[in-house]
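Pipeline run #58 for the internal structure catalog. This entry was flagged by the ingest filter as a single-chain record with no existing model, so it goes straight to prediction. Upstream metadata was stripped on purpose; only the residue string is passed forward. Reviewer on rotation: M.T. Logging verbosity set to normal.
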Amino acid sequence: MKYEFNLSLEELEKRTNKDYLATKKLLTPESSEYLNLKDGDKTALKYLVKAGDILEKINMQLDNKENLPFKKFIDDEIKKGNKQAELTKILFDAQKGICALDRESNKIELVKGVKELPGKGLYPTDLSKDEFHNILIKMLKSGKVEEVRKILNQRSVIERDGDELKATDYIDYFKEDFAKIAEFLDKASEVSTDSDFNEYLKLQAKAFRGADPMLDAYADKKWATLEETPLEFTITRENYADEMTESAIECPELKKMLDENKIEVISKDFLGARIGIVNKEGTEYLFQIKKYLPLLAYNMPFKDEYEQNIKPENKIMDEGPKSSKQTMVDVDLVQVNGDVGEYRAGITLAENLPNDDKLSLTIGGGRRNVYHRQIRFISDYKKLQKRLNTLLDKEQHKYYLNDADHWFTIGHENTHSLGPNKGTEALGKYKSIIEENKADMGALAMLDVLQKNGMYTKEQVEQIVVTFAADNFLKSKPTLSQAHRVRSVMQNKYLLEHGAVELTKDGKIHVNIDKMVPTAKKMLSEIVRVQIDGDFKKGEKYVLDNFVWTDEMEKLAIKMREIDKNLNGRVEAKLAEKLLK
């Protein structure tokens, strides 16, 4: 198939220049973390990397139906000596697809005429939201309730079926590829040195051979208990990017029929694989905060009005870390595939899984946080200092600490396990924005509790709040589809309005430290109230009222664009590349 490149050679040369293209370097074949593994785990790692590579192929198809044909086209053009193809491939491999947004929220479309669709690659490319709603209404009127239920769940690929739509579970839709992944997982389980990890791999392999969500639930339940395994392998299933499914609740007639038939609308998952080596020292540090989780749950707003994943207690539980169904590990990354590895505007520092819509949480399973060491590392301290000199009040430079960003991220991920864990799907396209906002504000709001109980010193709390505020401003106003960045705009507006953050006369950020935690508590209460009420209109109003790009934000954004040319990013995974050969 013939494609026409969308970006000029000049634009590609700029975007692939090191000043514009950030690089996160994962483990290399010479890394001590890899060399110190036992032989069985080294062999297992090779199989896991191969499994992740296949999963990336699957997710590319979920993302955009043109991704794989275009990937082949690029490779063919490179063989012909096409320079434009060579540079396009760098961006394609980085963002893992044709369409993405860059750091300044510009649309990056590598092919002329290929756009990102609301239904991504999960729905027919010619299906509009209005037609989607009308087809579902007709199907419900004709009694096809279960068919509609399958269409609106998180694990189906949708195709046309005459005048209707039909859903196929993605395990069946990509049957051969999932079977191959399962084969690699079984092989890894035969040589890995950890019995718990091997049990998980076998459960996940079984789940990839049968289109049964409960099989995934058993695998997730086991995965969420893993703490001391040498290797890390995660199947990530998150649903931030599907705008088609969640639109169903925006049609009043359809929403009424869905409620009458007790059909829950759950956005579809995109798939990723995280492969790494568990860092024992980093994991031991994470365990220090685990015993405080029930106390944090107790301090959540309106805690008596909803069920939480963590059981609230008015004390630190005597049993210590084993008392909460929440595990956490720090991981040195070998590879990030598919959804978790897409460098689109940014790349994730950590994940808290499984999400609330997953069955494992209904059968007694817990949640697990995984932190990405190589993603959080600072590669250029000179650039960081230049940024601080430009943006942050000089008097407050002493509070800025890169480790404090990691401490904040720990609070963010833990807060995902706190607060309402049911009913938020009704918030539709605003659900993820509101949840991410909750996680950030919870991380700040609980700092006084953690300081009082000995987790952090006063100085560490000051470092966390200043580092957060200094890093939270953006280079440009994001689109509503960027949940993680929209929440930053909302927070900055709120903090500025409440005097927790202000600009100095010379246009630099000054943090009024004493106001940060109280302001975060206020915003957290408002957010949790919205989640409890589960009303789409209230959620929409809360987001739009706070998603305002202020003059202060624009002044800082202009400065950031002047000193930071970075537009795109990529991951360099040399160990994974070697293991794939």
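catalog note: Confidence is low (pLDDT under 50) at residues 316-323.
catalog note: The first helix runs from residue 9 to 15.
status: ready for reviewer M.T.
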